[in-house]
Design goal:
heterodimer; A: alpha+beta; Rossmann fold; OB fold (Dihydrolipoamide Acetyltransferase, E2P); six-stranded mixed beta sheet; 9 helices; 20 strands; B: mainly alpha; MetI-like fold; two-stranded antiparallel ribbon; 13 helices; binds adenosine-5'-diphosphate; binds magnesium ion
């Protein structure tokens, strides 16, 4: 059993920086859990507390049913992969991977067996005699993962392991990490600031901001049902549009007023949910991919709006169009064949089933 | 642009290229001249020593001959020096003192630097600065109080007194070099070792020392040089010939009455300078190999 539990964990650094402000988190056995959030939100600090590299100021951390607050890193049965790989420069790849096992007095043939297995999982078998300086970035990253795998620990901890790689290799190694997890199934906690990495890798994503957890959930749930404006804006690229809006009750039908003469109807199944918030300052949230050309007929609940385009950005597969509603910049994703032209008006369809209404004061998604 | 101006421009541009070439030539001449002058200044004394050590006493005394040329080279002074039990004693003393001082220095400064750079404890920053400040106090100032201490311990006129005081010269600077080297090792490396199960001593022995080997060798060379060439302390603390190291032994004991045995003094001084040369040549190779094998980061 190697579940990880965090109970009201707080980290207060000397000097008064409260990096982590009360985190509760339960990570199940075999789960791939990704902590994601902007730089400085306390992800690394949380991970380092789990590793035992930072002391816990308040709260408890449990690994596999044991409270580990006062257990040193080497006895927590965890392995960590660092952003800069942290390979021992004077050791060969084999020695790097074997180091932890040697210190734990594993027999020689067992060490060899484990290193060979990890090397074959990561396809670095022919690199075993090289020193780290003779490896490429991607190969070093593999060795760093190999060093974690051979230990066969209860938990893998990754701190931004792909941030030092170039974009293409990053995508490749991302797949590699997922493959490794499917092969060894070790409980994994993975820290990144990149929401795409979080979405693609995670069984469950933990979105952090300012030292607290904003929302926890599977990638698709975060995408479709963000709980806060922060999560709504953080997950997805290009980011969700937020347009100041008012709820108007016209002849029994609830509509969302976006600006002068620009309104969209509230979907029937949400009328009851939104009605009590009519008097509040609201934001209408919609992702660029849910603002499209009108010709798509496969979708229900399309609300047409006409806008004047400022800028168009052809991306090949799709075209991003930018415009303003009452001064608020908005982005939409349309088909390249839809005939978008900068400076010209365009009719767009808002996919109302995918919209969100946000309380502008509390930041909660309603 | 007219043809006339174009033609006027052309020679000017050409002249510019020429002057650039000439400037470069002058820079080269200047640097070679200064290098040759510097080489002459630095090499003249050892060459003079070498010439003198190869002359017979008669040739040395002959004022009519050029001091820079050797008429009939002889190794008699080298033979005499190497057979002189006093000289061999000086050599042994220097070797013993240096070996011990280098060992003591490296053990203390590596341990101290490891603690000061990695184990964050109250006042470690101040202590690190303090260590360096002690190095700035010159030995010409320290030998008087140290004389009292060494005397109080009954170690005057003994090489053990030197073994005790030389580290006050070597430890601060070597610790400082090592702090710098250890500080350049990324923190993740010790954290990885910590998670891999290394204790502090294992981390020092298996990670820090091998990774910081170039720094350790630089510090060793420094400690060796200071200890081998120390002059002020032995001058102050040692008067018995049997306990003298080379630096003061050669100049004080190879004098018979009022006559300076120049041939032997020169031969002795050159022989005394040999070990540092050997150490430099041997360790420099390692030093450079260590540098290129380092490659800590990606
Ligand atoms: N050793 C430290 N001492 C003081 N403050 C720190 C220390 N480490 C991190 N912090 C602060 O804690 C906050 C969270 O840092 P970190 O966990 O590294 O963020 P993230 O990994 O999410 O980018 C930041 O404001 C950072 O400045
Ligand atoms: Mg971080």
């Amino acid at each position: 059993m190697s579940e990880v539990n965090l109970r009201k964990v707080v980290k207060l650094f000397e000097g008064g920086v409260q990096a982590v402000r009360g985190i509760d988190l339960e990570i199940a056995d075999h789960e791939f859990c990704v902590l994601v959030g902007p730089s400085g939100c306390g992800k690394s600090t949380t991970l380092r507390m789990i590793a035992g590299l930072e002391e816990v100021s308040e709260g408890e951390i449990w690994i596999g049913g044991t409270m580990v607050n006062d257990i040193p890193p080497k006895d927590r049965d965890i392995a960590m992969v660092f952003q800069n790989y942290a390979l021992y420069p004077h050791m060969t790849v084999f020695e790097n991977m074997a180091f932890g096992l040697k210190l734990r007095h594993f027999p020689k043939d067992e060490i060899k067996r484990r290193v060979d297995r990890a090397a074959s999982i990561l396809s670095i078998g022919e690199l075993l005699d090289r020193k780290p300086k003779a490896l490429s970035g991607g190969q070093r990253q593999r060795v760093a993962m190999g060093r974690a795998i051979v230990r066969d620990p209860k938990v893998f901890l990754f701190d931004e392991p792909l941030s030092n790689l170039d974009a293409k290799l990053r995508v490749q190694m991302r797949t590699e990490i997922k493959k490794v997890h499917q092969a060894v199934k070790t409980t994994t906690i993975y820290v990144t600031h990149d929401q795409v990495e979080a979405m693609t890798l995670a069984d469950r994503v933990v979105v952090m901001n300012h030292g607290v957890i904003e929302q926890v959930g599977p990638p698709n749930e975060l995408y479709h049902h963000p709980a806060t404006i922060f999560v709504a804006g953080f997950i997805g690229s290009p980011a969700m549009n937020f347009i100041p809006a008012r709820l108007v009750n016209a002849a029994g039908a609830l509509t969302i007023q976006l600006g002068q003469g620009l309104s969209v109807p509230v979907p029937a199944d949400r009328t009851a949910r939104y009605a009590p918030h009519a008097s509040k300052k609201l934001l209408f949230g919609i992702r660029p991919e849910h603002l499209t050309e009108t010709t798509r007929t496969d979708k229900q609940n399309l609300a047409p709006i006409t806008v004047d385009l400022d800028v168009i950005e052809p991306m090949g597969m799709e075209t991003l169009v930018h415009f303003r509603i009452e001064g608020t910049p908005v982005c939409a994703r349309v088909d390249p064949a839809a005939g978008a032209q900068a400076g010209a008006p365009m009719r767009l369809a808002a996919h109302m089933d995918q919209m969100h209404l946000i309380d502008a004061d509390t930041g909660r998604v309603l | 642009m007219t043809a006339a101006t174009a033609r006027r421009d052309f020679p000017r541009a050409y002249g510019k290229v020429g002057s650039l070439h000439r400037e470069r030539l002058w820079a080269l001449r200047l640097s070679y001249t200064s290098l040759i002058v510097a080489a002459i200044i630095f090499l003249a004394p050892p060459v003079y020593m070498l010439m003198t050590s190869l002359k017979t006493n008669a040739e040395m005394a002959d004022q009519t001959l050029s001091p820079w040329l050797v008429r009939s080279p002889t190794l008699e002074h080298y033979g005499a020096t190497l057979e002189n039990p006093l000289f061999l004693g000086f050599f042994a003393n220097s070797a013993i003192v240096t070996l011990l001082v280098v060992s003591i220095t490296m053990v203390i400064s590596v341990l101290a630097a490891f603690a000061l750079s990695r184990m964050r404890f109250w006042g470690s920053q101040t202590l690190a600065t303090g260590v360096f400040l002690t190095y700035l106090v010159p030995d010409t100032l320290l030998f008087i109080p140290l004389y009292q201490i060494v005397g109080g311990l009954g170690l005057l006129n003994s090489i053990w007194g030197l073994v005790l005081v030389y580290p006050t010269l070597t430890v601060p600077f070597c610790t400082w070099i090592m702090i710098g080297y250890f500080a350049s090792i990324p923190k993740e490396l010790d954290e990885a070792a910590l998670i891999d199960g290394a204790s502090w001593p294992q981390m020092l022995l298996k990670i820090f020392i091998p990774v910081a080997l170039p720094g350790i060798i630089a510090a060793t060379i420094f400690a060796f040089t200071v200890s081998w060439a120390a002059f002020v302390y032995p001058t102050a603390f040692i008067t018995r010939p049997e306990e003298m190291p080379l630096t003061i032994g050669v100049v004080s004991q190879l004098v018979r009455g009022d006559t300076f045995a120049w041939g032997q003094i020169m031969a002795g001084a050159l022989l005394a300078a040999l070990p540092p040369v050997v150490v430099y040549v041997f360790l420099m190779d390692y030093y450079i190999a260590g540098l290129t094998a380092g490659a800590t980061k990606g």
